[in-house]
Amino acid sequence: MFRLIAILLLVGGLATQQLSAQEIKCVDNRSYAVNIDIHKAYISGVCFVTSQAEVTTVGIVNEFGVSALTCRYNAGKQRVKILNILKPLAKPHIKSVLRKDFAKIIPSLLQSDADQPVEHTNKKYGITYRFVPMATN
Q1: CA atoms of 54 and 49, how far apart (whole Å)
Q2: For a pLDDT cut of 70, what percent of the chain falls above it?
Q3: pLDDT at 40
Q4: I need a surface site. Which of 3, 42, 69, 72 has the fewest CB within 10 A?
Q5: What is the pLDDT of residue 113?
Q6: CA distance 79 to 27
Q7: For residue 137, what pLDDT is reported?
Q8: What is the DSSP string of 11-36?
Q9: In this structure, is the dihedral angle defined by the CA atoms of residues 80, 84, 87 and 88, taken in order, positive or negative?
Q10: Do 118 and 107 form a contact (C-beta atoms < 8 A)?
Q11: Burial class of residue 132 (count of CB atoms within 10 Å of its CB; 0-12, 13-18, 19+)
């Protein structure tokens, strides 16, 4: 009974709301094969990008299935917040560099064609990020 009342209230509330086309944003999902090359190490795996309105969430899973990095980009503020990171990378300086780099990378990923690779190089620290789109079926 409670569920029925909740559903009726929800449907009634949605029916009375009028949303403009600008308020309804489509969700954009993309996936990339990613390589992050650092001087003596690298991270490779799959990157999932989900974008809705002004917020884009990026998740990188390494080849062993372990979540290496999860971050959220706010386009309005042009800021990146790291939500989850591998323990060896969880040092403040490394997180700061990743935040600044992904603040440049994520807009490039969103603006690129779905079939074009994206590459970013941090010359100061010698880090190369390569994102190659994965085929979708």
Answers
A1: 13
A2: 79
A3: 83
A4: 3
A5: 84
A6: 20
A7: 57
A8: HHHHHH----TTT----EEEEEEEEE
A9: negative
A10: no
A11: middle
